[in-house]
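Appendix C: a fully annotated inverse folding record. The material below is reproduced so that readers can follow the format used throughout the book. The structure is listed first as tokens, followed by the designed sequence.
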């Protein structure tokens, strides 16, 4: 075994990556996903490795790639997943994303959210989010989105609705009562716009 009769009554060693049975007149190359183990046997490559025809060893998959036992090649983990180091492509946690063939997922930054399709999308005007968010939230009434992912209190004499990008002055004849409402002045009283 491991040799063959070349027709000249001599036993010739099989080439690396090939094997034979006793009494053979030819050697057989180890197939894809296997390798010549040096003991005249084509052993199956382990999961996480691969080989071509007539291999003498298996090659480890690259970062972000996985394979089943006996594979000819490795497969890149899809976008939205990552190679966990144990030959598994694992879904990214909510609020994080990845490119194909990744070994890590990246959190969506503050001011964006994971839209469920492996994309970090900017929050709408008037909304904010923390890092690794799956939703954005409206700035509450009495505040406004300053464009830097912060909800800022309206100045005295101004009010806003939830989800606002600016505050508006209370009209003349009204005043800000401190509860984000413009209240009419009492009879006989007047006020300028933006009054408290």
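Designed amino acids, in order:
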């Amino acid at each position: 075994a491991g040799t063959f009769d070349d027709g000249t009554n001599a036993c010739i060693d099989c080439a690396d990556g090939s094997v034979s049975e006793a009494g053979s007149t030819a050697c057989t190359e180890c197939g894809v996903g296997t390798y010549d183990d040096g003991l005249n046997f084509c052993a199956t490559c382990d999961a996480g490795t691969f080989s071509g025809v007539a291999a003498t060893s298996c090659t480890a998959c690259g970062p972000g790639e996985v394979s089943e036992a006996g594979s000819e090649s490795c497969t890149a983990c899809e976008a939205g997943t990552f190679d966990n180091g144990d030959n598994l492509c694992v879904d990214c946690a909510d609020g994080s994303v990845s490119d194909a063939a990744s070994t890590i997922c990246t959190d969506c930054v503050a001011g964006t959210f994971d839209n469920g399709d492996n994309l970090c999308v900017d929050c709408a005007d008037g909304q904010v989010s923390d890092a690794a968010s799956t939703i954005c939230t409206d700035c509450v009434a009495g505040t406004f989105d300053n464009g830097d992912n912060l909800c800022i209190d309206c100045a005295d004499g101004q009010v806003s609705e939830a989800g606002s990008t600016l505050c508006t002055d209370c009209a003349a004849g009204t005043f800000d009562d401190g509860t984000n409402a413009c209240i009419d002045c009492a009879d006989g009283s007047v006020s300028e716009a933006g009054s408290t």
